[in-house]
Amino acid sequence: MTYPEQYDQYLHMVETTLERLLPQTQDACPAQGGMPAHLCETMRYSLMAGGKRVRPVLLLAACEMLGGSLEQACVPAAALEMIHTYSLIHDDLPGMDNDDYRRGRLSNHKVYGVGHAILAGDALLNYAYECMLRNAMEHADNLAGLVRAAEAVAQRAGVGGMIAGQSLDLLSEHEAPSLERLEYIHMHKTADLLTAPLLAAASIAGADEPQLAALTEFGRCIGLAFQIDDDLLDLEGDAALLGKQTGMDAQRGKMTWPALAGAQAAREKSRELWDCAGEALACFGERAWFLREYARQLRGRKN
Amino acid sequence: MTYPEQYDQYLHMVETTLERLLPQTQDACPAQGGMPAHLCETMRYSLMAGGKRVRPVLLLAACEMLGGSLEQACVPAAALEMIHTYSLIHDDLPGMDNDDYRRGRLSNHKVYGVGHAILAGDALLNYAYECMLRNAMEHADNLAGLVRAAEAVAQRAGVGGMIAGQSLDLLSEHEAPSLERLEYIHMHKTADLLTAPLLAAASIAGADEPQLAALTEFGRCIGLAFQIDDDLLDLEGDAALLGKQTGMDAQRGKMTWPALAGAQAAREKSRELWDCAGEALACFGERAWFLREYARQLRGRKN
């Protein structure tokens, strides 16, 4: 199979799973267990907004590489997209980043109001675990592996993972920027949720310790590189918009790699991290062909 | 054992479990997996604010009644308190109920700001599942039962449960009140999270279908009665404060049982529900002595 064919297959799997788990509903007050129509709409507005599905694709690709079951992996993959989406909805709220737009559309709270945006985020987070738990019960032959996968997701998404990064990020507005603090924030706010699908895949497939360590390193590298590239793209956008000098000024005071270490050092750090990501996959040999190519695509992205 | 002794024992179990799962930390940027100090403080502020621990006590009492393991039940009990607490933090936010006070203290966002209150809620919700998943892995001899318990909690806390009720409640500000809609909201916003601990206990203890049905009915009855009593207490508070006639006026337009059906009908409905709750426990005979007495205490509460 070619890379584009394989990529489309993974993407199709993610979209159909999300559509199956969260179909449009019409019922305002459904019977026990059903989802009210308006709540469902607020969740779907952000979940079906054309995200790149990076985390689910990583999970499916890593699972297949390790010989795990894609049928078991579909729901955890979709659940990770729910968790990623809830974090974006809450990040956009007033009191957090207060962003009116996301992916070129009005952010969730601009359409449905702050109250329902809070609930839509809560609902996606809770539903992610509800789906993973039910999926584990439905695959009793790999119950322990699927529970370990859900636990890995919870750990990286939670108080020692993504939310830890978000908390430090919020606090950093009032504190002196430092590269050490910045790395902590990037590691947790961004990299942890890119490592989560790899660890979940390893649990589902029953990977051994060296494989787990290699995937953890791969996730860490692409996560940190991803964030630095984001900051560099922002800088170039600002530079194109405002002129080179003021582009750098616009980043000043922000906690970003280019602002703290300079654009050149940031570019070097990014290159180094992408190289490390490639090396981390070496132990999987040819079986890592898709992840290797996918990392190349993520590295070349322009938005 | 007497009722007060048994009650204190359950309460002690809940408090020590919460303290073990969420101890105070000092580290601003802890190593992988650790909780940053400020995030931990924001979570503890609301979690350790002297709640009555109704849901955890219900879980432990039902589990012991059914012959289940209290050691296995401690963490799910604490997790339910985390979920209840997150829902209160988010309910108090501007855009939701916008309350400055909770249990006689400033609400979470008045102390830590809206951004951190959102994160503290997210963190408690995610951590509830992280703890339940880890607890399930640590008790491999009852893995399936503990996963089923976590799934029952997720189902009642989520898009077909508590959050469904919250969503309809938010929408109801703009819609014509009706008793049917009110029952839907009470059933989900309040009763579902009181049924959750009973269903979780049944899963942990491996209860049979008739026992499950009896506990579901018990949860539904005390949940709905609890909410009607709350509304009646509010009404009496308003009446004492504002005089009888204006007390009723203050409730007008609100979606409450007394406002929609009158105080007398509300009192009758409450009595009927508490009686039903008692009857639901009949099939457990003497083993239900604690739950029966606990329901009596909840019925007699004055706040």
Task: Explain how this protein is built.
2 copies of one chain form a homodimer. Chain A is an all-alpha fold. Chain A has 14 helices and 2 strands; from the N terminus they run ααααββαααααααααα. A two-stranded antiparallel sheet of chain A has the order 1-2. In chain A, a hairpin with a 2-residue loop joins strand 1 and strand 2. The two termini of chain A are 27 Å apart.
In terms of topology, how is this protein built?
The structure is a homodimer of 303-residue chains.
Chain A: H1 3-21, H2 37-47, H3 54-65, H4 70-91, E1 101-102, E2 105-106, H5 108-112, H6 114-138, H7 143-157, H8 162-171, H9 179-205, H10 209-242, H11 244-251, H12 257-261, H13 263-280, H14 289-299
Antiparallel strand pairs in A: 1-2
Features:
homodimer; 303 residues; mainly alpha; two-stranded antiparallel ribbon; 14 helices
What's the arrangement of strands in the largest beta sheet of chain A?
1-2
Number of alpha- plus pi-helical segments of chain A: 14
- What share of the residues of chain A does DSSP label as strand, in percent? under 5%
Q: How large is the radius of gyration of chain A?
A: 19 Å
- What's the count of strands of chain A? 2
Instruction: Work out the helicity level of chain A.
Output: over 70%
Q: Concise description?
A:
2 copies of one chain form a homodimer. Chain A contains 14 helices and 2 strands, in the order H-H-H-H-E-E-H-H-H-H-H-H-H-H-H-H. The first copy, chain A, is an all-alpha fold and 303 residues long.
